Amino acid sequence: MVSLLRQEWFYSRSCKPDVFHAKYKQCTMFFFLEICVDIQMSLYFLFIYGGILRHLTTRVVPKQRALNVAHYILSSTHTIYKKTFISSFADQMIVHCWQLSMALLLIFICNALRLVYGLDNGLALVPPMGWMPFERFRCMTDCARFPKDCISESLIRRTADLLSSEGYAAAGYKYLIIDDCWMEASREEATHELQPSFDRFPSGMRALGDYIHSLGLKFGIYHDVGQKTCMFRGPGAAGHFKLDAQTFAKWGVDYVKMDGCYASENDIDWGYPAFGAAMNQTGRPMVYSCSWPFYKSKPNYSLIAKHCNLWRFAVDIQDSFTSVTNIMTRYSSKQDILTAHSGPGRWNDPDMLVLGNFRLSYDASRLQLAIWAVIAAPLIMTNDLETVRPEIKKLLQNPDVIAIDQDPLGQPGKIVFAVQNLQVWVRHVSPVNAFGQNSFAVAFVNQGGFDACPLCPQTLEVPLYRIGLKSRMGYSVVFF
Ligand code: GLA
């Protein structure tokens, strides 16, 4: 009990995102600075406990020496010692040493817990933005037949170049994340390290990471907390957490997408925090993206939010309007619990933006981007940047929608009104006025399917107060 309380207290003081930015090491520094306060806090808890015990022991068996020793050990003041039975200097010294060692033990336990619990990485204070190949390029490994579409160094370098030259990076899309199917089927024999496919990533991951960084981008990689990765079935992290975290740190990885295939539900509950702790211990800040809830029948979101920067809560997205709306429905059906646990440093991930591929119309593309922004989702594109149509590129780089997604208040939105297939989604955003009233991002959604004219525009009348806009001063409206 005490250690958990203490952990929250420590977490909020030392490693809160606004205090702690660059490196984990800063947390360690704070830790040393705060040791004195730690001792006081620990003694304080000890004394309260001592006071209660003393009260009980003196009332129930007032004269029993054994119990009195216990009560001295846990008592808080000299007055108490004098009034009672231990008088010798030696006895009092024992009491002091005992108190001190108990306090140190408490500190040790609290901080050991803190190492295991709590992400403390100060990253992803706004939802991460970037690119990932999976929905578009899947697990294509045949570079002889599909040289432009296979998961390879050349696809990643080409995408890095386009992110940088086509304005995506400037718009915020910084994380270039390699998904599944990048690895050799087995670990290196002597070191047991993961190794990238020799044919498809001939320069190795360190060099690729350097290239990505040289363009001002961030480098992400996929892994799996279980025995094998989901589609490629390459080696999972099981049994090698420390080594794999260190390997990623060595390669200059900035973001890890950790999948959960080939692991039992118990392994998952244990594995995600443990891998997060292993990443923490490398000293390299890496955003931690977890698929944890997706593999649980009843996800514990408060636990997940403690360990991950983002988490997948729904099935894999596909390149279709139905898939986008299914994920929206999944979100809205759980929106109270999902929004309760999300905020700066911890985001609900509805999966990638499929804009720019084959099957979303322009309107459906607008829908996906708008809703992803309103629910404060990570904006991770999956497309071939070389072939994205100009109007979709413009949409993807729309600064107003991106500003909503990246709003510093970090409050995810919800569906607040629905009638037939019409919905209103609302998110609280900045600016906040002098009276503490926030602004709102509002998305009106027409999912179509109406009898007479399934795809026609519809008219929706809804009083503003019904969707939470209650300021008497009114609002100025900006449309995107
Ligand atoms: C799972 C994940 C996907 C993708 C594949 C790769 O299905 O949910 O996003 O990473 O694995 O195998």
Q: Would you mind describing this structure in some detail?
A:
There is one protein chain. The protein has helices at residues 2-14, 24-33, 35-60, 65-74, 78-83, 89-116, 134-137, 153-165, 168-171, 204-214, 241-251, 265-282, 301-307, 321-333, 335-340, 362-374, 390-396, 399-405; strands at 129-131, 175-178, 218-224, 255-259, 287-290, 310-312, 347-349, 379-381, 414-419, 422-429, 439-446. It starts with a helix and ends in a 34-residue tail after the last strand. The model is unreliable at 1-40 and 60-86 (pLDDT under 50). The protein is globular and about 85 Å long. Helix 1 crosses helix 6, helix 11 (241-251) packs across helix 12 (265-282) and helix 16 (362-374) runs parallel beside helix 17. The relative contact order is 0.09. It is an alpha/beta fold. Helix 13 (301-307) links the parallel strand 5 and strand 6 (310-312). Strands 7-6-5-4-3-2-1-8 form an eight-stranded parallel β-sheet. Strands 9-10-11 form a three-stranded antiparallel β-sheet. 43% of the residues lie in helices and 11% in strands. The site of alpha-D-galactopyranose has 10 residues, from loops. Alpha-D-galactopyranose binds next to loops.
